Amino acid sequence: MPEHRATIGTRRFDFGRDTFAFANETYWEYHFDPASQKTTFSAKAPKPEYAHRCFVLTRAVRQFFYHVRFDWGRQAPDDQTCRRLIREVMRRNPRRPCSPEQQIVIPGHANLREFSRERAPLLKAGCGRAWRSYILRSHWRMVFPISRGHQTRTAASLGAVLAQGIPPIIHLVKFPALTINHSMILFALAATPSGFSFQAYDPNNPNQPATLTFDTASQTFSLPPNHYWAGGPLDIIEIFRSGWM
């Protein structure tokens, strides 16, 4: 399979340009014991100021990708104008892009990464509160059984939408354990000897892309260990793709 990358028109989704520079923080410090395979956690001190917004940020990344054009050659707007522009973006449909003539123009900034670095407080306040990560129409799906066949179909569907230029938003879950309940946005796919490798924007770690793999023999997605996940198999659900999801 050739590599697929999300593209709108002639513009390709670029991790260093089309993602937020700030992180979705976690309330907990996670501790992984390789011997027992158990995870323990303790509260962070001081308490994080910006957390529980992974679904908020992945939705917002796609809204900016679908509906915004940055014009760095013009004067940057004041804070009041920035707040208005952010509100306009957040009202846009996260499921489909607008036409070029309907794009919202944000002047004085080259891209979302730069905009979010320079105007982080405004974006954190304007993209949505934490409750928006918990009250989603798609959350119903994780409570029903997810078969290996479903995951094979999901892997194929994710590849298909990437080939169409769509950066799919995914829900990563282990249910009912909920050792992970997280969201990412995929932007690239490549074939591997055992299946597929997806590149993703992880709002918990905005400094580098995450790698999600799918093994065709076991029909299983896997995510390597990081600061909030011990690593290993998990289930994937594509979200923000239809009226139901």
How would you describe this protein?
With 245 residues, the protein is an alpha+beta fold. It folds into 2 domains: 14-134, no CATH class; 137-239, no CATH class. Helices cover 24% and strands 30% of the residues. It is built from 6 helices and 13 strands. The strands form 4 sheets. The protein has a 6-stranded antiparallel β-barrel with strand order 8-9-10-11-12-13. A two-stranded antiparallel ribbon has the order 2-3. Strands 4-5 form a two-stranded antiparallel ribbon. α2 links the parallel β6 and β7 (104-107). α3 (112-118) packs across α4 (120-126). The protein is globular, with a radius of gyration of 18 Å. It starts with a strand and ends in a 6-residue tail after the last strand. The mean pLDDT is 92.
Report a brief summary of the structure.
This protein is α+β, with helices and mostly antiparallel strands. It has helices at residues 54-67, 79-90, 112-118, 120-126, 131-134, 148-163; strands spanning 4-5, 7-8, 11-12, 28-33, 38-43, 68-71, 104-107, 169-173, 181-192, 195-202, 205-215, 220-223, 232-239. The chain has two domains: 14-134, no CATH class; 137-239, no CATH class.
